[in-house]
Amino acid sequence: MKLDRYDLAILRILSQDGRMTKSHLAEEINLSVSPAWERVRRLEESGIIRGYRADVDWLRAFEGSRVIVEVTLARHTAPDMRRFEERIAGASEVLQCHATGGGVDYVMHVMSRNIDHYQRFIDALLTEELGIEKYFTYIVTKEVKSMVEGVPAWAGDEVAGET
Asked: How many whole angstroms from its chain centre is CA 156?
């Protein structure tokens, strides 16, 4: 789907305030309500807008530990990867999991009560025969940046005719 400046404005605005009214959004992007909301619907149907949620700071809500885990599988077969991904998709401790190319197969962001809870989670994964060859654990000491709102600066380049 090709985005124009109105679409980018909608994405920027809704990523900052997903509860904005139709009329306020239309006013912000200088369109009438119907065309503005039709654009939102199109962005939703295309999967670009995946949903509307609260941005929760879990570490502020609960004392806990945030851990980044790099996982390498022993074999790279489709069944092994599928088995690992299905297990991780159902793990409430895992906030994010990304399949990666390069030195490791997956990078996970894990939230646990404490380091002991995290280690029990990892031990359980290892005993489930998910094909994990090795994993590396990195304790998050400080969040420097978490982009949950806004549009990356380069996103408007195509609209402006740049590449």
From this structure: 21
70: nearest Cα among 97, 41, 51, 47: 97
Q: Are 159 and 151 in contact (CB under 8 A)?
A: no
Task: Give φ, ψ of 12 to 5 degrees.
Answer: -60, -50
Q: Which domains does the chain have, with CATH numbers?
A: 5-54 (1.10.10.10), 58-139 (3.30.70.920)
Q: How far apart are CA 112 and CA 110, in angstroms?
A: 6
Burial (CB count <10 Å: 0-12, 13-18, 19+), residue 67: buried
Cβ atoms of residues 135 and 72 within 8 Å: yes
pTM value is 0.72
Q: 6-50: per-residue pLDDT in tens? A: 999 999 899 888 899 999 999 999 999 999 999 999 999 999 999
